[in-house]
Structures are given as structure tokens and as C-alpha cells.
Amino acid sequence: MGRYVLRRLLQLVPVFIGTTFLIYWLVWSLPGDPFAGKCGDRPCPPEYIAQMTARFHLDDPLIVQYGRYMLNLLHGDFGETFRGLDVGELIGDAYPNTIRLAVVALLIEAVIGLAAGVLTGLRGRGFLDNLVLVSTLFLISLPVFVTGFVLQITLGFELKWIKTTVSASPAPWQYLIVPGFVLGSLSMAYVTRLTRTSIAENKRADYVRTAIAKGLPQRRVVGVHLLRNSAIPVVTFLGTDLGALMGGAIVTEGIFDIKGIGSLVYRGILGKEGVTVTGVVTLLVVVYLVSNLLVDLLYAVLDPRIRYD
Amino acid sequence: MRTPLRKPHWIATSVLPLTLALTVAGCAGGGDDSSSGDGSGGGVDPNGALSAFTTEPQNPLIPGNTVEQGGTKVVRALFTGLTRYDPVTGESKFAMADKIDTTDSKVYTIKIKSGWKFHDGTEVKAKNFVDAWNYTTYGPNAQLGASFFEQVQGYKDVHPADPDGDGPQKAPTPTADKLSGLKVVDDTTFQVTLYAPFSVFELKLGYTPFFPLPDSFFADEKGFEAKPIGNGPFKFVSRKPNTEIKLTRNDDYKGDDPAKFKDLTYKMYETNEAAYNAVVGGDLDFLDNIPPAGLTGGKYKQDLEGHNGSTPYMGNQTLTFPLYDPTYQNPDLRKAISLAINRQEIVDKIFDGTRIPADGWVNPAVPGYAKNQCPELCKYDPAKAKDYLAKSGFKGQIKLSTNADGGHKDWMTATCNSIKNALGLDCVYEPIPTFSETRQQITAHSMKAIFRSGWIADYPSIEDFLNQLYRTGASSNDGLYSNPKVDGLLAQADASPKVEDANKLYQEAERVLNDDMPVIPLWNQTSQFGWSDRIDHARLSSLKDLDLTTVTVKKK
What we know:
- The complex is a heterodimer.
- In chain A, α1 (2-28) packs antiparallel against α12, α9 (218-247) runs antiparallel to α12 (274-302) and α11 (261-270) crosses α12.
- Helices cover 73% and strands 0% of the residues of chain A.
- Chain A has twelve helices and no strands.
- Chain B has three domains: 18-55 and 233-311 and 526-553, Periplasmic binding protein-like II (D-Maltodextrin-Binding Protein, domain 2); 80-214, Dipeptide-binding Protein, Domain 1 (Dipeptide-binding Protein, domain 1, Alpha-Beta Complex), CATH 3.90.76; 313-525, Dipeptide-binding Protein, Domain 3 (Dipeptide-binding Protein, domain 3), CATH 3.10.105.
- Helices cover 31% and strands 19% of the residues of chain B.
- In chain B, strands 11, 12, 13, 14, 15, 16 and 17 form a seven-stranded mixed β-sheet that branches. In chain B, strands 1-10-9-8 form a four-stranded mixed β-sheet, with helices on one face.
- The interface between A and B is large, with 49 and 58 residues.
């Protein structure tokens, strides 16, 4: 187990270097002039461009720029934006908001999704099953921004139950419930369906029949034997979804004005700020890799047949 | 319905409250009890807090380096220059200046009021202006506002021109580090000498690059960037990038226009729509730029009933011909296109009547503006347009282009259709994905299509709408227009010692543009704004700022 974890962690290094370089290169090769929009509807004076170019070493070849960036990163220095702001600070301000939002979304999708999935999976066909089926289909077919705007307008403007925009940073947890629901709604529908299918399938599995035949109480059969085995695909999904939730939060963050990494990346791309984009995405990559590792480790906990040596 | 030159309703209604507010402020000068003023329901909380919308400043908050909207708003609250612009008429008035004397419009002797202090307690002296201007113009400091000092003697020595624009060659090292035309006479007096007479110079003095800088700036620039120190009505408190900038009232402020509330927070939003939702929901107190989603069908008038306004600001929308491209060389073709655009209809259909069709190249809110400078060619006339087209002999496709990320698609397409229908030529709208790419192509003079252009006044003067745009080689002459007659008139106007005479010559230069039609005037901009029910007397100045001198916060 320990060696497996170590091996996986070592694998992170080349993936990390590869992705960061790829992102740096992509942003670098974007068309457009980073200083074009900085002086309003007029061209920037040449002295300004010359000074900025020198200050950010934009004349160096890509590989040199990237090398310098990585070297600074090793010292914990994320660099500076063209506006003269420290990227490390920006990320430090924005990341907690996105993480909070993703955690809220993940909790909502896990709790509601699993509960609905287990219920319908156990009961089988019937009114509840149909209701869940239809409502999940509904959620899946709605794009996130529709759900977002509809909830913002109905709950925020009409009923005044929630704050229409979060704005505060760090974002208070209670304001994030609705945005979290919006962000997690799509995955919640998938979790429900996955759980339901998995439960329905495993309900007739040999080990469940054995457990029932042994005379184990229903709660133990379902809670320990059935649920644990049925959880594997769901956990895989949830684990990979955490990364997707963080990266995909840009729309939700825009609607509810949550000061997260979504807009940071978006602005970074528009402004050709390789430093910002790479910084944020690097951390996303780390989150993704670590959550995948955790998922793999969870397999061993959930399924006794899986072992890592 | 809306005649182009109708005096905007907003100005008419707001003059009264303004004069009232000014007298109230004037009377309350010495005392501190001003809560008994206006009677618009509920008292005024003199220590109230309010929040206003802004965008993230593009550069650190140094006046000489701040020329875009987001930063300018904050810098104007933090600093007070020699003059300031009237929020309604745009007229230049003395602020820190006590006297500005000149006999020939070439040598200006400026006396500042004594007793003013920077927020760190140091006195504002003549030296602070001179040092700041020297810093801003010195080439290697690469300040964006440097070119506004180009008339000052010595500018060419401290800011030598780059021989090849932004090409690979470096600009030569300056031969001097101070403007020879600036001289400190005593603590409160300094003298400015220009290369040649330039009467509009005085009008420029209220613009951000002309603000003074405290001594501490020169000692510790990084420290200043982290906590700017100004001499204005508001003091810097804190800043959180992409989130907010907090300011608080400077109670030692010596100006005659102090704020009637205490804490000012500039908030940034992810999108304009989010900001709109925030102001409707009550999380934001003032939004100066209602997004298209709120404008459609006048939605904002219901969402913010009694809390909204519309005001013209000193900006216009134009279409520029890339005159370096062989396609648009013929002036008759350019005139034909201008005649083929039904401005009023587009304004009514697309903008819900909120723009003012242009009758010239200069915005009506700007001092020096003259009516009906484009009497023939800026009016929709398909028959005449066809005549001009026939004269030009042009048969081909007309292309319009601009950035796709700025919400210009609707009116660009409508304009194209108008041209298509009137001239019977094919017209296509070809957007370029981002503003920065568009700007890059414009700067590189590689545009193949007629492109959108716009201008917002830096300072309220007709000069700003002409010199920067139509003079040969001017910094924003993006279409590379050149006409010796225009250049001559502009130079003559610059050199006339009196503003009134200068303005006449500027207007004459403007009329010459009719011969060439290098840029098609479309309409003048207005801004729709809204506020929350926590504040009163909110209004937008002609430079598109929340007027901090009139707005009040209601008592809870």
C-alpha cells in the first residue's frame, strides 16, 4: 500500500510538468496582444509596451520563459499579473471560494444523489422511481446556466430567500447552498442514476442472496454488503467530479458572482496572462490527481478483492 | 420622436438639485451639521456607507499611469487636481488652483491654494505637481499619461520618440530627466512653459495625469502602489484584487465639494449582469452601466423603479475606414456608406432610443461643440447615397468588423443591413473574437474591413475629439487619415491664445472632415444607470463617474 501510494505520487511529477508546460504553451500561442486592451480604445505608447515586455521577459523564447516560471514556482512564487498583482495572492483569495463551492456541490450531490438512488434502487418500479427518473432527466437536460438563472430569479428576486449575488470573499457557506446546488445538479442526477442501477443490479447478486440466507438483518445486508459494493462506480464518479466541479464552476461563479478561480482563468486567457492561467490550472491538476489517487485508495477499502501491493 | 439635439431631459431636471446641492454645501462649509438639507423622505446619514460598481484597474493606482475607466474612477476620488470638471456641463473649474495666469497661452503661472494636505499629512506644494509631471513624462518610467504633456517645453528631451513605434528598436535614452518648461517659483506657485501657444492646455489640467503626487511616492513607489496617498475627498483604506477597493472620507479635505457620506466601496463583479442583479437585489448601491439584458424593453425601469437614470456622456460611436487599404480610397464611396446608414432607426430598434444620432464628429456634451457639423452626409438618404456610389464606381463587398466580445453584434448587423438595403451592395459583418486581437490588428494597420471605433473624452474639450483622432500621425488616428488642410487648421487652433477662437478653428477643421469622410459618425453615447433604495441624489457625471458630491445615504 505505502509503495503504491509512493509510486502514484511519483507519477504526479511528469504529469505535473507536462500539463503545466502544455498550458503555458497554449496561452503563449494565443493570438492577440496582451497590452492591446490596457489603454482603452487607443494604442498603448511604445515605451509602455517596451517596459512591460522587458519586465515580464516576453521577448524570451517560450522554453526560457517557462523555465523561469517553474524555477520561481519552486520558490513558491507564482509571479505577477500584468496589472502588477501577485498571482499567489489572487489564487489564495480565489481558491477557497471555489473549493467551498465545490465542496458544497459535492455534498449536495452525494447526499441527495445517493439517498434518491438507494431508495429507488431498493424499491424498484413504482411512483417514486418514475418521479426520480423524470426529475433527473429534467436536470440532465438543463444547461447549468439555465438552472442558475432560474433559481437566481425565483429564489432571489421573487421570493427573496437567497442573496442574488454572493460577492463577499471568502464566501460565507450559507450563501453557497443554492449556487452549490446549481453546480452539483447535473452530477447529482448522474449519481442518482448510477446508484440506482448499481443497487438494482447487485440486489440479485450471489453475495446478497447468501447474506439474506445467513439470516442477517435487512439493515446489515443493505448497509454493509449491498451499499458498499454498489458504491464503487459512484465513488469513482464523485472523485473525478470534484476536479470537474472546480474547473467547471466558471458559469456558476459568473451568475452568482462568486470570486473564484473561474473568472481568474477566464480573464487570464483573455488577457494572455500565462502566469495566472498556469498557476490556477496547475493547482487544478494537483487537485485532480490527488482526488483520483484517493478514489483508487478507496476502492481497496470498499472492495476487499482489490489490493495494492 | 427624439430629435438629435434635444437637450437631454436629464440635464434639465438635474440642474436644480445641483445648484441646490452646491449652495447647501457652500453654506455648510464651516459647520458639520448638514442633515437638515433636502426633504426627500428619511434623513441623510452623514456617516453612511455606499458601494459603487467599478472594473479592476488595469495598472497600479498612480494618476499618471491611469487612463482607463476602472482606475480613473478610483483615482478621481483619491486625488484633486488643479481643476475639476463640472459634473453636468463639463466646464473646467478651479479646484486646487487659486489662479492660472497667462497672457500668451504659452507661459502659464499657476498658483495653488495653500493649506491643502495629502492624506499622510504633508502639505501639497507646487513642487508636488512639478515632480509628478516630471515623473509621468520621463520616458523610462513608461507612464501611460505621458503624451498629455507633449506641449510642455522639454517634452521631446525627457520623452524621445521611439524611431519605429513599438518595433524592435528601443527608444533613445532621454537627454534630460526633467521638463525644462516646468519651474517652481515658490511653495504655492509654479510656471509652465509650452513649446507654442496652446489655449486648451488649461482645460487639460483636471485630467488624471495632471494630479500631484506626495513626496512619499518618490521615496517608496511600491509602498505607494500598495496604499495610494492622494489629496482628494477620499482616503485609501484597502484593496482586494477583483473584489473591492475601500475608501473613506477625508475629513481634512479642503475642497468645496466634500462628500455627504463616509465610506465608499468600489466593488468589482464577474459580469455586468451579476452587477445588475446585485443592484436590483440591493447588494450594490450604484451601477453606472446597465447591461443589455437590463436595457431590453426598458426592463431596468421596472426593476429599479424611481432608482434609475440615463445621461449622455462624452463619448461617441463611429466607423473608421482603413485608409491604408486600397478598397476605401474613394471619398465618394465613404460618403455613400455614411448616407446609407439609418442612424435613427438603428438607435430606436436596437438601443431602445437611448443613443443620440450624431450630427458631427464631436460629442454634444463637450464644450466647444457646434451643432450640425455634418449637415448633409450624416443623414439617411438612400437616393443621394446611390448617387455617390455611382460616382465612385465601386462594385464589391463592404465589410464591417469589430470585436465579438463587446456586445456590438446587433447594431453592427443592423448597420450592415441598412447599407445593403440602401446601396444594393453586399455587406457582411465579420467579427474578430476578442478586443485585444481587434486592437492588435488596428494598431498594426492590418484591418481589411471598416471597423468600429469610439472615443470617450479624456477631458471635456472639442480639441480632444479632433487632435487625437484626425491629425496626421496622431496617436489614435487608426485609419491613417491625413489632410494638410485639417492639420493646418488644427495647428492654427492649437496656437490661438483664446479658447473661444481656438474652438472656432477646431469647428472649422471638423467641417473639413465632410470632404473626406474618413470616419463615419454614428451616434453619441448615453449611459443608463441605477441605484439602490439606500441612497439618494445619485447621478452620473458627464465623465461617467458617480457624482460623489451629491449622493447621500439614507438614515436607517
